[in-house]
Amino acid sequence: MKKIGVLTSGGDAPGMNAAVRAVARTALSKGMEVIGIQRGYVGLLNREFVEMNARSVSGIIQRGGTCLYTARCPEFRNMEGVLKGKEVCEEIGLEGLVVIGGDGSFRGAGDLSSVGIPCIGIPGTIDNDIQCTEYTIGYDTAMNTAMEMIDKLRDTTQSHDRCSVVEVMGRRAGFIAVNVAMAVGAEAAITVERQYDLNEIAKKMIKTMSEKGGKHHFILVVAEGVGQTENIAREIQEMTGVESRATILGHVQRGGSPTLRDRIVATEMGYHAVELLEQGIGNRIVGLKGGKVYDIDLQEGLNMKKAFIDQRYDILGATAY
Ligand code: ADP
Ligand code: F6P
Questions:
Q1: Which CATH class is domain 140-254?
Q2: Ligand 2 atom 9 nearest Cα
Q3: Does residue 110 have its Cβ closer than 6 Å to ligand 1?
Q4: CA 240/CA 218 separation, integer angstroms
Q5: How buried is residue 306: exposed, middle or buried, by Cβ count under 10 Å (0-12/13-18/19+)?
Q6: Distance between CA atoms of residues 103 and 15, nearest Å
Q7: Where in the chain is the domain with CATH 3.40.50.450?
Q8: Does residue 146 have its Cβ closer than 6 Å to ligand 2?
Q9: Atom of ligand 1 nearest to the CA of 76
Q10: Are 19 and 122 in contact (CB under 8 A)?
């Protein structure tokens, strides 16, 4: 291929810039032309293009967000939008496209591949909820951000003998919640993947408080998919008598400079995506398997089921309180 495009789509994630940089630099080093498409599929349909050279991706590897901007594009959910996207690609001579985003973005990439524009998906989402990869770009940074914020929250929670019920992001997935709960020494992680029993949590809190020298402040981490954070805080307060506050960390988890892990994985995945396109291969998702970068058929990858990190609950249960 002589000319490829790159776009970021769906929610932004720290490390997307590192992926864009790797795609652009790798392609340029192979003598390809690279077009940056702004605002995801919206920008593809509206022809929002920037010609990329090695310098246009200078100084972005350490920045959060995405220099290409991102958007959600309802029009791309139907074939009419996808065919319009194909026409625009052909109009400017794009022979392949790298799509950095989540599973929704990959479905769009699959559709575009099916009409003759080979696309490669790179997983960029803080949620780590893409079935065919152990890791998604942004996950590590988001978890570190949540961890740092909950560490700060603990100071005030402890000073007031309160319970903080903290909601972390993750869409429907509880990966961020379980890991962050473990990393901050929380009493429990409440997620959709595992049944939870607030009575059990409350009983444990009451027992701990009744012990000589027992503790009187608590942190519960709730995955946003549970959707009950305020109610959980209220119920815990009623059941234990401990003043409980809900804190929703929100979009701050999507910001900030990417960690080393996110920069490295993004760079490796960006490189691999271009290697595939160079060989004329499309309709693939790049992922991590056994810690190594690999690629898989897009539809097959989207149909996989991701195992949840159940063992972490046991460790959390054994080490809390
Ligand atoms: P993410 O990629 O993070 O999962 P979304 O689910 O919001 O984020 O999807 C991003 C964009 O991908 C959507 O706005 C739409 O343009 C495109 N997309 C999502 N689902 C589909 C689909 N089933 N078919 C085609 N395109 C889709
Ligand atoms: O997919 C990333 C994510 O931040 C999820 O964790 C969250 O559910 C969602 O995006 C929020 O989306 P929006 O930016 O549209 O509020």
A1: alpha beta
A2: 171
A3: no
A4: 11
A5: middle
A6: 17
A7: 3-138+258-303
A8: no
A9: 16
A10: yes
Question: What pTM was estimated for this model as a whole?
Answer: 0.97
Tokens of 216: 């009187």
Atom of ligand 1 nearest to the CA of 127: 3
169-182 pLDDT tens trace: 999 999 999 999 99
Ligand 1 atom at minimal distance to the Cα of residue 103: 4
CATH placement of domain 3-138+258-303: 3.40.50.450
Separation between Cα atoms, residue 194 and residue 210, nearest integer Å? 28
Closest CA to 274 of 15, 53, 29: 29
C-beta of 113 in contact with ligand 1 (< 6 A): no
- Write 192-197 long-range contacts (CB < 8 A, 24+): 192/223, 192/225, 192/226, 193/308, 193/310, 194/308, 194/310, 194/313
Q: Whose CA is nearest to atom 14 of ligand 1?
A: 72
Burial level of 78, CB count in 10 A (0-12/13-18/19+)?
Answer: exposed
pLDDT at 320: 86
From residue 146, how far is each of 29, 155, 256, 270 by CA, in Å? 37, 15, 11, 26
- Return d(Cα 239, Cα 229) in angstroms, integer: 15
Quick one: which ligand is closest to 104's CA?
1
Q: Tell me the CA–centroid distance for residue 7 and ligand 1, in Å.
A: 13
| Catalytic (active-site) positions | 127
* pLDDT tens per residue across span 10-50: 999 999 999 999 999 999 999 999 999 999 999 999 999 99
- Which residue owns the Cα nearest ligand 2 atom 15? 11
Ligand 2 pocket, 11 CB below 6 A? yes
